[in-house]
Predict the structure.
Amino acid sequence: MECLAIIPARSGSKGIPHKNLKTVDGVPLVTRAVRSARAADSITRIVVSTDDKEIAQVAREAGAEIVMRPETLSGDEVPTEPALLHVLEILAAEGGYRPDLTCFIQCTSPLTTSDDLDQGIAALRAQKADCLVTVVPTYDFLWRRMAGGAAQAINHDANLIRKGRQEMEPQYRETGAFYVLRTEGFIAARNRFFGRIVLFEMSPEKSVDVDGPLDLELAEFLGARNVRHSE
């Protein structure tokens, strides 16, 4: 079964300039993503989609193919799906390539491992799903601020005495680490969510999303701790 990994890595970032070239444990985020994909047994081809020549060179040196994306697909307001579809269109046009599965991997989740990717792909196939999303369990009580400033409970009944954590059913927070998609369904839907959606639970320790400088420090700390625990 052909499984294409697509790693979007544009140059622009409001939180951290040139974020995808920032390092965790001395390794650029884009390189970490490519290395995890290369080490995954289930992934048969790896493409980095970027608008930046320096990112392209670093990704190429890590072992990825490069598809340069146009400026129209590189802005802050452009969703990721058009960049993924652009890669699929280029590969189909240039070589008639159409993978069975597309694994969309985020550089900003630097603690994702090849085992995570293999297990996620296996879970989608075993559950006969159309798409899979990575999540972490949460027991947080969420509120919204209404017009006039009054608070309203979102995921709980504030009029009831709260249960202990061990009695609560978890909800799940999307981490964005990676998504596994059946390619034909994704092309038809043009959205990463379609058909039968299943969850792939990851540990909170692997689910850092690098959005600002403190996230990089946390990823460094957790990455070092994960290495110590695996030895």
In short: The chain has six helices and eleven strands.
